[in-house]
Structure formats: structure tokens, C-alpha cells
Design brief:
The chain has about 425 residues and is of the alpha/beta class. Helices cover about 40% and strands about 15% of the residues. The protein contains 16 helices and 13 strands. It has a seven-stranded parallel β-sheet with strand order 3-2-1-4-5-6-7. The protein has a six-stranded parallel β-sheet with strand order 10-9-8-11-12-13, sandwiched between helices. Helix 1 links the parallel strand 1 and strand 2. The radius of gyration is 23 Å and the shape is globular.
């Protein structure tokens, strides 16, 4: 079976599944705009955006124009592939970037699967107390307009997939029946419990017997709860002289509005009373180092606003790290309070700090939560044994019900549950 994955980045959400399918004997191709992408498991097809959006484009539509330009870049690569005789059975493309807009125009006989990640709305689901809408109608209109790429893809897609129930619930009710929830899957063999590495900790300025509290994100911003983590760190530094807090993130904003002036890291350092000898900013680290930190973690904090659930959250569960997480729908889909972790009001930093202290004092509770968290991920979301075989069946069934399959009825657009 020939499958083509399309994403501006690489490997992004599709890389692990693409490798697994290639290992199962599928003919896998990955089209990407990322320069220098390489793989021994599949063919890589590059495409590029030939220009930036026009300065005269209405600001509501700048993202849509950028998506059309990305779609143009991909369609040129697709035409070249077709001229070489390549016709995929299935194409899976990330919906937000526009890269799948014109797939059916080049390959009308191909089954097109839209990967839908997020639907914008107002008030914003991922809003925080740090920002107040100055012009609600303007922001509502902008949010509505940002969904144009989803609708363009949806109009052509033979199937729509979404990685979590929470994300699927964000889409309008009229389309939810056409969305199949299919997890991204997680590598539970790599992300697994293990002993604390004292040499690794000492090399990074952390005493081997320290109480270690960890936080992982792409950037440092309110959307992912960074200010609350820093406020909790201030309380923990006062309460426990043995606590070292490790911030694994870049000093930038990955999600949400960018601050005027100083970064969120600079703001927190300037306003809070923190012991900098027990506060460690690592920047982004390798996967192996991330796992070392998680194995050493006595409490891992995830205080994100309701948004796309971070892979690092699930990977922390898979590593058996004791978790304290924001009480929100995306988290509660994966975790039950006092079973696999502890759920808190992220803005009550006193409560956050108190739960950390409880975990530090009650190591049996910490171990129990961490063990249950790993068990849940292994049983429900392991990539190799559960998610990827489900995905393969989903894609195979989609093709079996397509007009290309001999004697099969046309696809009705109804979801096939994986």
C-alpha cells in the first residue's frame, strides 16, 4: 500500500507512524518543506513555499494565504510525482498548514485523510488571566477566520482524524461525527522508568540527593503555565532547602501572545524571590537527557491552560514521573486525580506547592501514582502494540471502502472507528 504523509515539518506528528508502516512493508513517502530532512525508512520529497504572503493581504487572511502558498508548493511536488507514475493509495496531511489543499486535484482517485489538530474559537479555550481581550468582536472574527484552512481541507477529505477526544470536541458539532479520534501513539519502551543518574545530576549542578521538581515545554509562556511554575518554585524554595527546580524550555513564546518588553523568564526572575543556585534553566535538551531528568524527578509539573496536550506530559507519565497537573479536560482525558497523578487549580500556586511537598514527604504515594500513570499509557497509548496497528487498520479499511476498490461502494464520508 502506497501512503504519502505531508507536513511542513519533519518528522512532526507523522514520523513515528511513517517509520512503523515502512517496517511493516508499506511503500512510504514523506513530503516536507523542512530542509535537509533525511530518512533510511522512507522516500523524502521536498517542497517549498515560493513567497511570503502579500503585505496588502487582509490581516485576518494572512494565515490562509500562507496556507495556500504552502499548498501550491506541495501541489507542484505532487504533479512531478504523478508525472513519474507515482499515485498514492492514501495521503495523510496536516490540516493547519494548507499542504493538503490540492491533493485531490492531482490525485482524485486517492483517499485523502485530513489531520485536524485545533479549531479556533472565542473566548479562547487556552486563555489565561494574563491577557484580556481589548476588542472582543475583532478577536472573535480573527479566530473564526483562522479556521479557513480546516474547512478547505474538510471539503475535500475522505476522512478526518484528530489525536485526542478533547481536541475533537473543540470542532463544531456538525462535523464531530466525521472525526475519528486516533492517538499519535507513544514510545513507551524508550520513555520508561529507570534509576536516578547521580553523575548526570552532579554534572548539571544538582546534588544527587536533592529533591528534584521538573517542568518541560517548548517555550516559557502563560499558555503552558510557566509563570505559575515559577511562583510555585518560589514557595518551594522557602519551604524546602533541598528542592531543585529544573526548567526544560527555551526563553521564548511558543504559544499565545508575545509580551511587550521583557520575556516571561526575565519578568519572573525580576519579581520573585528565587534561589538561583537551586533553579536550573537547561534550554531544550536531547531526548535521552529529558528522560534522565524525568527519571530523577520527584514531582513533574504540567500547569498548561486547556490546549493541545503536550507530548512531554504523556512521556512523563510513561517514565513513571509523579505528576501534578492542571485540572482541565485535556489532562483528565489521560489522568484521574489521585490515581495516576494529582490535579490542581494551576493558578493556586499555594496548592501546587503543597502537593509537591506531599509527594516529597510521601514517597509511597509518589511511586504509586507514577506506576499507575505508566500503566495507563502502556495499556492505552503504546505506539507499536496499540496505536499504530489501529492506524494501519483504519487506513486499510478506508482504502477498502474507496471507489478504487473493485466492487466497493463509494465512500460515504462516515468515520471508521479505529
Amino acid at each position: 500500500m502506497k501512503i504519502l504523509f505531508v507536513h511542513k515539518n519533519f518528522p512532526a506528528q507523522f514520523g513515528r507512524l511513517a517509520n512503523w508502516l515502512a517496517g511493516q512493508g508499506w511503500d512510504v513517502t514523506f513530503a516536507t518543506a523542512r530542509k535537509g530532512a533525511r530518512s533510511d525508512q522512507m522516500r523524502i520529497v521536498p517542497f517549498r513555499e515560493h513567497r511570503e504572503p502579500s503585505a496588502s493581504t487582509h490581516h485576518y487572511l494572512t494565515g490562509t494565504e500562507r496556507a495556500v502558498i504552502a499548498g501550491q508548493g506541495m501541489v507542484r511536488a505532487a504533479i512531478a510525482l504523478r508525472e513519474q507514475g507515482y499515485i498514492p493509495d492514501v495521503v495523510v496531511a496536516h490540516s493547519g498548514w494548507g499542504v493538503g489543499f490540492f491533493i485531490k486535484d492531482v490525485w482524485p482517485e486517492t483517499q485523502y485523510v485530513q489531520y485536524a489538530e485545533w479549531y479556533y474559537s472565542f473566548p479562547h479555550a487556552d486563555g489565561t488571566p494574563y491577557f484580556t481581550a481589548q476588542h472582543p468582536v475583532e478577536e472573535s472574527a480573527r479566530a473564526r477566520s483562522r479556521n479557513a484552512p480546516f474547512w478547505l481541507d474538510f471539503s475535500a477529505a475522505d476522512a478526518t482524524i484528530c489525536p485526542t477526544r478533547y481536541q475533537a470536541s473543540r470542532f463544531p458539532e456538525k462535523v464531530r461525527d466525521h472525526i475519528t479520534v486516533l492517538s499519535d501513539g507513544f514510545d513507551t519502551k524508550t520513555h520508561c522508568p529507570g534509576p536516578r543518574d547521580p553523575d548526570f545530576l552532579q554534572m548539571h549542578g544538582i546534588p544527587p540527593d536533592a529533591s528534584v521538581v521538573t517542568y518541560i515545554a517548548r517555550g516559557m509562556e502563560p499558555t503552558r503555565g510557566f509563570p505559575e511554575v515559577m511562583k510555585a518554585a518560589e514557595r518551594l524554595h522557602r519551604a524546602r532547602p533541598d528542592v531543585h527546580v529544573v526548567i526544560i524550555a527555551d526563553d521564548r513564546v511558543a504559544y499565545g501572545p508575545k509580551p511587550d518588553g521583557a520575556s516571561w523568564k526575565e519578568r519572573m526572575l525580576a519579581t520573585l524571590d528565587l534561589d538561583l543556585t537551586r533553579l536550573h534553566f537547561t534550554g531544550l535538551v536531547s531526548r535521552s537527557d529529558m528522560i534522565r531528568y524525568l527519571r530523577a524527578s520527584d514531582a513533574h509539573l504540567y500547569l498548561s491552560a486547556p490546549f493541545v496536550l503536550s507530548w512531554s506530559f504523556v512521556e512523563a507519565m510513561s517514565c513513571g514521573a509523579p505528576l501534578i497537573a492542571a485540572r482541565s479536560a485535556p489532562v483528565e482525558e489521560f489522568m484521574t486525580h489521585e490515581t495516576e497523578g494529582l490535579l490542581v487549580d494551576p493558578y493556586n500556586t499555594g496548592e501546587v506547592a503543597d502537593w509537591v511537598v506531599r509527594l516529597l514527604d510521601d514517597r509511597d504515594l509518589a511511586r504509586s501514582l507514577g506506576s499507575a500513570a505508566r500503566d495507563r499509557i502502556v495499556r492505552r497509548y503504546d505506539a507499536d502494540t496499540i496505536v499504530f496497528p489501529d492506524a494501519a487498520r483504519f487506513l486499510s479499511d478506508l482504502l477498502a471502502h474507496s471507489p478504487r476498490a473493485a466492487g466497493s461502494p463509494p465512500n460515504t464520508g462516515r468515520p471508521i472507528q479505529a
